[in-house]
Amino acid sequence: MNSNTDMSPLDFVKMHGLGNDFVILDRRLAGQSDGESALSLAARRAISDRHIGVGCDQLIVLEPPKTDIADVFMRIYNPDGSEAGACGNATRCVASRVMAENSSTHVIVETIAGLLDCQALGDGNFSVDMGPAQFDWRDVPLANATDTQHLDLEIGPLRDPVALSMGNPHTVFFVDDVQAIDLAGLGPEIENHAMFPERTNVEVVQVIDQTHLRMRVWERGAGITRARGSGACAALVAAASLCVSDRQADVQLDGGVLNIHWLVDNNVLMSGPVATSFSGRLDASLLGDAK
Questions:
Q1: pLDDT of 78-132, one tens digit each?
Q2: pLDDT one-digit tens code per residue, 9-56
């Protein structure tokens, strides 16, 4: 996958950011723009399945940019086939590859949630400006008008979360010990709660000190993942908004550490490493009726 000119529709690369792993398909060649229907729901699910496909937390499809200033359009699919608006770790992975293609240290990645500005930091680390944190209940979105800083929601030991959007919905619970939380049991119930018309990502966060947070995540449409970039952003913003952390902190995830900085302009900067696992070619049967 050295350039968008030597890829067939079946070629893929497997990358990850702190264990948050992605199958990346490059469909930028003429006539291969993905759109809503080019990859069927069945194809998305099959490729993402860890038993019958390659397996991933998200399937990423690269398309030609829709706007002049962007370098690439990135479409994000969850393992259940649903489309997501944001994924910070995937954005950094894609940015690293497009930078290598362009021999540059800066690219703009376009998603359905907007334009994301990415920079190479050296030593295999990349940063992405994830855009503004949004607290309005309509932006999250929530089913009803409510105080998003203190959501009236209690399920088991989890209560009083912060709800916000980082281009996708997040519900952040603060706990004394993240390891003591049955995230596999509680995550699906919260994700699909009637309060969240578009479902929600679920983060449980332990404040270590003002500049260190520990987080585990139940990802909407994917389940428990080792890392979640937009979730780490949501965790830091929620903590800083409640004045239990600084506006910049390291967030320790199961897969490693991301540095998150909530800028004074309300945008959120995420920095961390990316890695390539392997590349290969899909069996045509996995694409089904995709063109």
A1: 999 999 988 999 999 999 999 999 999 999 999 998 999 999 999 999 999 999 9
A2: 689 999 999 999 999 999 987 555 545 447 899 999 999 999 999 999
Please give the pLDDT value at position 10: 86
Angle at 84 between CA 48 and CA 185, to 5 degrees: 70
Q: Looking at residue 19, what is its pLDDT? A: 94
Residue 184 has which token pair?
A: 């596999």
Q: Are 275 and 24 in contact (CB under 8 A)?
A: no
Domains and CATH numbers, the chain: 11-124+274-287 (3.10.310.10), 132-266 (3.10.310.10)
pTM of the model: 0.89
Name the packing angle between helices 229-241 and 88-102 (round to 10°). 120
User: What's the confidence (pLDDT) of residue 6?
Assistant: 56
pLDDT in tens, 54-92: 999 999 999 999 999 999 999 999 999 999 988 999 999
Q: Which residue's entry shows tokens 């002049």?
A: 68
